[in-house]
Amino acid sequence: MFEIRPETPADEYEVETLYDLCFAPGRTALSSYRLREGVDRVANLCLLLRDQGGFLQAAIRYWPVRVGGHPALLLGPIAVHPTAQGEGLGGLLMRDSLARARDMGWARVLLVGDAPYYSRFGFTRLEGVEMPPPTNPDRVLGLELQDGAWAGIAGQVTREAEAENTPALAEDAEPPHIDATCHETRRPRDRQDDDQTAAGAASDQRPERS
């Protein structure tokens, strides 16, 4: 049995330690981090997965960004502890967090990663969406949480100047209130969601590819 719940300030050190363990020490120097500096995370979507003993097994974070002036979610980093890889925990966090994002009124999600891995969650390559260099455009992927959300959206990805925790991506809609709830789930059985490497699904952390 696993528990999925939102990250709290008390979890900060433990989560950062997990990211340091899974990714290169220079991860914060990568281009995607320029979009996160000085911007508040989307708190209700930054989730932790702990085992029955309370040990942190996986974590995922989201940031608000702008794409050609339109709001979007930037997914990542997501990490799975090396001792828990191959158990589908990355897939659990992906699906849980994306369902919450949809319920909150978000319409579109952006990430930088390997298309073959992320396609199982519905992500496809985004044409005309420009991440800060030197990001490989083939690795810029998007997912629609609302029909047609990426239609006609292009341009540079920029920081959210005034971060908000629950902006609605149907531009004029107000998202419903979402409580910071905990979910319990059993060990996943579908190994199609197994994480590929120690970096798990957070392949935007690999400097040689970003």
From TrEMBL:
The record ties this protein, via Gene3D superfamilies, to: 3.40.630.30
Q: Where is this region: Disordered?
A: 159-210
Enumerate the spans annotated as N-acetyltransferase domain. Answer: 2-146
Q: Does the keyword Transferase apply?
A: yes
Q: Which PROSITE patterns match?
A: GNAT (PS51186)
Composition bias (Basic and acidic residues) maps to 174-194
The protein's name in its UniProt record: N-acetyltransferase
Q: What is the species listed in this Swiss-Prot or TrEMBL entry? A: Paracoccus alkanivorans
